[in-house]
Amino acid sequence: MHSAEALENKANRVLRIGQLAKALNTTAKTLRFYEQIGLLPAATRTAGGYRVYDEAAIRRVRLVLALRRINLSIEEVRALLESDESSPLRLRLVSLLQERLRQVELDLGVLQGQRDDLAARLDNLLATPRVRPADCVCEALSGACTCGRYVDHRGP
Fold it and tell me: Please, are residues 78 and 38 in contact by the beta-carbon 8 Å criterion?
């Protein structure tokens, strides 16, 4: 049985931490960590001290895991979950994802510029005349030989 189906079949019951972790493809250690840092509220405990999760807790765990799986940081998840309740979660998430998308697009522009620069330097280095000493890397760094290791004997 698929883990999501297992959760649906147990929807009216409580799940122990190990059962929930397995059903959601995570670890009990992760759930305990998220509880420790406040992303998840303290779990209900059985008489034997086991953490158990009811439907509401399972929904919260699913939400936190889903937010982390789209690469939101712990602080971003915390901010989303602790934000002003007058603003719906969907709108807060839309705003956050729009900002993240803008940042990724800026980062891509910078990376494309770096890639283009490196490609040009490599092309220059590969085009270095064979008469230059093997240790001369000036073509990759500045375009003209400035290291003094190459003397052009062809004359002016």
Answer: yes
Q: Is residue 109 part of a domain?
A: no
Rounded-to-integer distance, Cα 73 and Cα 79, Å? 10
pTM (2 d.p.): 0.69
Provide the domain limits for residue 61.
3-82
CATH number of the domain residue 66 falls in? 1.10.1660.10
Render pLDDT for 50-100 as a digit per residue (tens, 0 to 9).
999 999 999 999 999 999 999 999 999 999 998 777 789 999 999 999 999
Sheet bearing 15-16, strands edge to edge: 15-16, 51-53, 44-45
Number of domains in the chain: 1
**In contact, 53 and 64? CB cutoff 8 Å:** no
